[in-house]
Amino acid sequence: MHALANPARFLRLMAAIRPYAAAVAIIGLVVGLGWGLLISPRDYQQGETVRIMYIHVPSAWMAMFIYAAIAVSSAVALIWRHPVAELVAKASAPVGAAFTLICLVTGSLWGKPMWGTWWVWDARLTSMLILFFLYLGYIALWEAFDDPSRAGRAAAILALVGAVNLPIIKFSVDWWNTLHQPASVLTLEGPKIHPDILWPLLITAVGAQGYYVWILSLRVRAEILNRQARILRFSAAADRRAG
Amino acid sequence: MTLTVEKLACIRGERQLFCNLSFRLAAGEALLLRGPNGSGKSSLLRILAGFLKPARGGIAWDGAAADDDTEAYSERLHYLGHQDAVKPQLSAEDNLLFWARLLGHDVAEAQAKVEDALTSCGLTRQRRLPGRYLSAGQKRRLALARFLITPASLWLLDEPTNALDAAAVEWFGGVLQKHRESGGLVILASHVPVPLPGARVLDLPEGKLS
Amino acid sequence: MTLTVEKLACIRGERQLFCNLSFRLAAGEALLLRGPNGSGKSSLLRILAGFLKPARGGIAWDGAAADDDTEAYSERLHYLGHQDAVKPQLSAEDNLLFWARLLGHDVAEAQAKVEDALTSCGLTRQRRLPGRYLSAGQKRRLALARFLITPASLWLLDEPTNALDAAAVEWFGGVLQKHRESGGLVILASHVPVPLPGARVLDLPEGKLS
Amino acid sequence: MYWSSLGDFLAMGGHAGFVWPSFALALVVLLGLGWSSRIAMKAAEREHAEAKREARADA
Amino acid sequence: MSAFFGIVMRDLRLGFGAQGAMMTTLLFFVLAVSLFPLGVGPEPEVLARIASGVIWVAALLAAMLSLDRLFATDMEDGTLDLLAQAPLPLGLVALAKTLAHWLTTGLPLAVIAPLLAVLMQMEGDAIPVLLLALLLGTPSLSLIGAIGAALTLGARRGAVLVPLITLPLVIPVLIFGVGAVDAAAYGLSAQPHLLLLGAFFAGAAALSPFAMAGAIKLALE
Amino acid sequence: MSAFFGIVMRDLRLGFGAQGAMMTTLLFFVLAVSLFPLGVGPEPEVLARIASGVIWVAALLAAMLSLDRLFATDMEDGTLDLLAQAPLPLGLVALAKTLAHWLTTGLPLAVIAPLLAVLMQMEGDAIPVLLLALLLGTPSLSLIGAIGAALTLGARRGAVLVPLITLPLVIPVLIFGVGAVDAAAYGLSAQPHLLLLGAFFAGAAALSPFAMAGAIKLALE
Ligand code: HEM
Ligand SMILES: Nc1ncnc2c1ncn2[C@@H]1O[C@H](COP(=O)(O)OP(=O)(O)OP(=O)(O)O)[C@@H](O)[C@H]1O
Ligand SMILES: Nc1ncnc2c1ncn2[C@@H]1O[C@H](COP(=O)(O)OP(=O)(O)OP(=O)(O)O)[C@@H](O)[C@H]1O
Ligand SMILES: [Mg+2]
Ligand SMILES: [Mg+2]
User: Fold this and answer.
1) Residues A16-63 pLDDT 10s
2) Distance of CA F126 to CAs A119, A149, F119, Å?
3) Using alpha carbons only, what angle is made at residue B139 by residues B134 and B145, rounded to the nearest 5 degrees?
């Protein structure tokens, strides 16, 4: 933990991980999606539209996973006053928002042929929309302050309070009747779907995780460098004035 | 009753205002903060009041670190910043009454204390006037009158005489004198002469004590 | 360029603050308003600035009553009240730029004027700092820097040196001096000594001129 | 291989209008985010270097 | 305790006195709800069908109207500094202000809602449930909204930043609140929904003092 | 003119802060609209019936949320004193601030409304009319709300009167606005409603500079 608290060491770690993350992302996404598009069978009910699933479902998982990651690093930032954790949370938010957007739009594109409508206001869909708003609110709060250390802690409090929403999304399908189908992969009893569909799905999901780590390493580096540049600028102003 | 400040450093907006600031203040003593605009006087007062975390160093009261029991520490002090904290909608009297009640006095006690404080600061005629109609100096008097309601050992004052007229400055000098005679401590920042005889002077940003 | 004030009276909250106030100020002259808190200095300045209607009496500029053409009258003056009018979200530079544009300068001109004003008031280092991070004195300097952007004949200043440090007060004295040398008028209220040599003094609430 | 011809593949059983936009959108969003993150990092590196240079010039 | 109620009383006076916050909120609420019979047309079945949802959404939005200045004025004039120094823990200070907010918005709103429900042709049996649900639900709105208000102190605020960050968090209140009323209208038991509302309130009340105190301390730095 | 646009630009920057604050208004609007399906339930027919009302209420709300501080911050920090001294007539100063307000709330809101209308299953024919009606109606909301905001500044004791005066004044906008959209949805001509909206806007634009200037002068005494 303390090794990571040092921004320089964290930067080195990120730089070391980056090529591997990129490799996992590219291989995972290409193989997973290729398999899904080219090899896996159609669904007897849904026809070829089932291939949307290979994008839709991993992005839904990533959307929720990244929000959880933000909540955890926010907690770390608040409890241990850990500057890097705060920046990890900040850098994750756009990635999470992007995956949420992909999930919403692909779901919508899937809904038209399956349910005959682009959008219904059911619990699962709406709670995903709310997650999207949570991401945007979180990003907006970061942007609303001039002082990054203030912004960081305010946003961390918001992320923790907002984490309450995650279980609501996850279990919305069980609590309210809905058009959307209930979980069949991430269940307590284990996966309930055919391996020909399951495998490409899982490989894509791993690729998406790699993508997340890859982008995270880029964005965190940008955040840390910006923060350090700010410090340099301000202390330079102070020195000149004192001198 | 001693306040010990050790090796204090302050960073604002990621730049260091002062560092290695140390001093000790005993009962009845006063410290006058001086320094050019932006040298960190207000920031130091806010650190001492517990609003701002110092970048390094610590504050202790009678040897006990302020961080250990922030509530007990903050109950020991009165703070007045650049703003008067006078609510424009409430009358002068109601403004003070609110603070008296907040500081834990019951109704009758609060009434009496406020009465005394208003008389002392010379606002008896304006007692029913809403805060928004008070002149700048009258608002400042009201803000200072708050200090008279409950005793506190440490007074932190940021340019308290701004907008006060000569008579009010004299009154305020008497108030400070009385506070120090009863063993209170005063830390005060100002650009203009203040009635604080025998005060030690701290020059910011160097932190030179004299 | 003469300002004539005749038999002015001010009533606030149904109480008469002063009455029968008359004076004449010629080019290059300065008037210092003095008086205890609540005696009506700020109110007089607000009357002169045209915000407040006097209960009786009138103001004339070069013999023409101010009421006749309030726009022409108000274009002739700069006013600074107890508040600094510094927007916390805008940087020091953008704060000044806004006023420069509002006063009718085009972009390039405004840039140049603001540059000069910032240098003069000593805030070049803080030019990119948002207003909320400026110290009390830095805000005040910024408020005064506004006066340097466009010339105006009559300057109305309400306790301008509050929160200014010694260096800034000296700078401000120079600014006032230059303004008066170029034929400007100054009316200034203050409780503390201000660098305004040869100013006439008006004591409120009696209205005694000396 | 599941598909019998390229045309078959592109037609997606008559659902091309839904399947392909989904993949295209995902591609655009993911590539766009990666690209903008890269730009942000480069900009930060430049900014940092410049601040460092200025600080050294001052000292 | 006297300090706590001192703050509540002061805020009530400030709220009633100059800003007329209570009047604005109530008027907005009534206006928003009564717009629907105008827009949707007078058919009783349609109105009855949407009544609970409309009333709840209007309540949610009305509560947000007054929230964003909850701590800001006190911060700008220096009062918050002194409140933070008071013998009362900062979380309780914030709670007192939140209570005053609820008394000026949530409570009057809940009290007037039955009248609007009649206007909207709501089932007679459902009306007491609506009142109960609003009394249980609106405090949660005030509490969560107050967290948002505290978090945005000192922010460059787009005026709607507070609702933006808090509305997603109060949606469970909306869902359980509507659920309770609709259950009663269909002759089912509203109890489970009301219990959930109560649980949400309890959670919000337990959590928000810490969140608010943390956020305010940040803003005073 | 440059002074006028200087004020507009400054207020836009104060409102936007960082790039994101117009986004904030939009998101709030979207969020407010999506609350209704959550409360009312997902049936498309019901949603289509209430869509126009919902969108108009949300628009009114987005305008109101930001309006009450339109002049208050400038007054509290002394800026309004100086604006009143500027070479620009005070009515135009106030108009510039109102224009900035509309550009940050009314305009983006009108632009995004068609998307929401689709989500709310609104009749396709009605959607262009909705856009037009919002473009005509939201400026009136900003103008009338700004008069209210200016009056609140000067109001001494009876400040409760202010919302009482302004809210009823904007009701016609809501009624004609909803009326226009509903007419189009039922295949009738929306023109009379749109003309009324336009007339209302013209009246408000002609009247409000004087009202605002008067109210602000009062407040500066
Ligand atoms: C905009 C509309 C939609 C949204 C926001 C959405 C959202 C989600 C979310 C959040 C999950 C993750 C569930 C979990 O792991 O617990 C998910 C999974 C899934 N969605 Fe959607 N969805 C949408 C439309 C659709 C449509 C139209 C279909 C197909 C008819 C569909 C089929 C699936 C499937 C098969 C899963 C995987 C469930 C599992 O096996 O765990 N979704 N969706
Ligand atoms: N609207 C009002 N109603 C009633 N009384 C008012 C009103 N406005 C101001 N006053 C009173 O008018 C008097 C003059 O105020 P003014 O601000 O002019 O005094 P001042 O000389 O500037 O004082 P200071 O030195 O404290 O700045 C004060 O006693 C104040 O209480
Ligand atoms: N959040 C912040 N970010 C960056 N700089 C800040 C911040 N807050 C304050 N400062 C800077 O800190 C410095 C110290 O401010 P402070 O108010 O302590 O000065 P001061 O000595 O009280 O000055 P004055 O005599 O003008 O009141 C100022 O230069 C100010 O610009
Ligand atoms: Mg200071
Ligand atoms: Mg005065």
Assistant:
1) 999 999 999 999 999 998 888 887 777 666 777 788 889 999 999 999
2) 19, 48, 13
3) 130
- Residue A5 identity (one-letter amino acid): A
Residue A239 Cα to ligand 3 midpoint, Å, equals 15
Q: Which residues sit opposite C130 in a β-bridge?
A: C91
Start-to-end CA distance of chain D, whole Å, equals: 67
Torsion of Cα atoms, E181 then E183 then E187 then E191, to 10°: -90
- From first to last of its 210 residues, chain B has per-residue pLDDT tens of 889 999 899 888 767 888 889 999 999 999 999 999 988 999 999 999 988 888 888 899 988 888 888 888 888 899 999 888 898 888 999 999 988 888 888 889 999 999 999 999 999 988 998 888 899 999 999 999 999 998 899 999 999 998 899 999 999 999 999 999 999 999 999 999 888 888 899 998 787 887
Name the token pair of D34: 């990666």
DSSP state of B39: S
Closest CA to B160 of B119, B43, B171: B171
A116 at D interface, C-beta within 8 A: no
Tens digit of each residue's pLDDT (9 = 90 or more) over C23-57: 999 999 999 999 999 899 999 999 999 888 888 88
Q: Please choose, from the candidates E118, E99, E105, E120, the residue with its C-alpha nearest in 3D space to the C-alpha of residue E50.
A: E120
**pLDDT tops 60 at residue F160:** no
Name residue B29's amino acid. E
CA R_g for chain D: 23
CA distance B180 to A173: 69
Please provide residue E45's backbone torsions phi and psi, each rounded to the nearest 5 degrees: -65, -45
Percent of chain F whose pLDDT exceeds 90:
21
Determine which residue's CA is closest to atom 41 belonging to ligand 1. A183
C187: enclosing H helix or E strand: strand C185-189
Question: Which residues, 6+ apart, have CB-to-CB distance to B178 below 8 Å?
Answer: none
DSSP D13: G
| Cβ atoms within 10 Å of B18's Cβ, excluding its own | 22
Token representation of residue E102: 């609820």
Alpha-carbon dihedral angle through residues D35, D38, D44, D49, given to the nearest 10 degrees: -130
Identify which of B114, B105, B47 has the alpha carbon closest to the alpha carbon of residue B74.
B47
Q: Structure pTM?
A: 0.85
Q: How many other C-beta atoms can be found within 10 angstroms of the C-beta atom of residue E190?
A: 24
What are the chain C neighbours of A237 within 8 Å (beta carbons)?
125
Rounded Cα distance, E37 and E59, in Å? 17
Are C84 and F78 inside 8 Å of each other by CB?
yes
- Cβ of D51 and A232 within 8 Å? yes
Q: What is the distance of C-alpha A56 from the center of its chain? A: 13
E24-E29-E34-E38 Cα dihedral, nearest 10 degrees: 80
Q: How far is CA E190 from the centre of its chain?
A: 21
> Considering only CB atoms, which residues of chain E are within 8 Å of chain A?
144, 147, 151-152, 154-158, 161, 164-165, 167-169, 171-172, 207, 211, 214-215, 218-219, 221
Q: Which chain E residues are within 8 Å of F15, Cβ to Cβ?
A: 158-159
C-alpha of D17 from chain center? 22
- Conformational region of residue F177, where left means phi above 0, alpha means psi within -120 to 50, and beta covers everything else: alpha
- For tokens 């009533």, what's the residue? C11
User: C61-86: string of b/e by CB count within 10 Å (b at 16+)?
Assistant: beeeebeeeeeebbbbbbbbbbbbbb
Q: Report whether B10 contacts B54 (CB < 8 A).
A: yes
> Are the C-beta atoms of residues C141 and C110 closer than 8 Å to each other?
no
Neighbours of A187 (CB within 10 A): 10
Residues 6+ apart with CB under 8 A from F63: F101, F105, F106, F138, F141, F142, F145
What ipTM describes this predicted complex? 0.83
| Residue B23, number of CB atoms within 10 A of its CB | 16
